[in-house]
Amino acid sequence: MSKVEIDFNNLKYNLYELLNVRPDADSHKIKKSFMKIIKTFHPDKNSDLEEDIYYHIILANQILYDDNSRRKYDEFINNTAESFKELKTSFNKSIKDIEKHLPSKNTSV
């Protein structure tokens, strides 16, 4: 059986948060949390949104339970977090540069 590569950019949720586990959780904790949560979101009982969450819960379990997939996901999360911080810093700097050219908020018209 071949492994399917998952594009982490398509995930809508943080998998650790979805399973309510810490990034350093062992496989036993991941499986236990998965079993507890999955019952709540079974698609036969819920809305389309909850069905989407159900799908992501299953993915979260598959990715985080497998050491190789989990390592790849952790690398993705860490790289994304850094690029997000850089983007946010750059955005804030751009806003400050633009505000220099705008009238002050305290200036009356």
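That was protein one. Protein two is written in the same sequence-then-structure order:
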Amino acid sequence: YNVLSRAGVASFVGRMKTAGLSGAIVPDLPPEEAGDYLPAMERAGLDPIFIFSPSTPDERMRAIASAGRGFIYCVARKGVTGLPTAFSGELDGYLARCRAATHLPLAVGFGVQNAADVNFLRGKVDIAVVGSATLRIIDEKGPAAVGDFVRGLR
């Protein structure tokens, strides 16, 4: 949120709109502290996207979801991004809690790296976020390789 705050929330949101974004995740901005951000996003027609984690209580999920639009980003596990996640049935309970807390589409990220991970998530969530693995492909093979990588995830 510091980046938005320093630039001025309304100005930054305006720049996001001009750049053609549809929404944004500001990972360190909880809804109850988003007094300037939420109205600015509403005026710009942009979606404020909020985050659930495995340790988020159900009541908190519902409160977060009520302020969000676009989708909810569900962090698959605790820890840092870019490391593998062991996708297993343990994730199913968490995703059921997420689904019960919101009508918004669910996106899962944090460790989604390959077609097997995407296939595990198929039918359980609406979006698989393959961020760090995509950046790794760009670093190793260049931007032109991303298309083949993404097609391989299907």
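Residues 90-101 form the longest helix (12 residues). Keep this in mind for the problem set.
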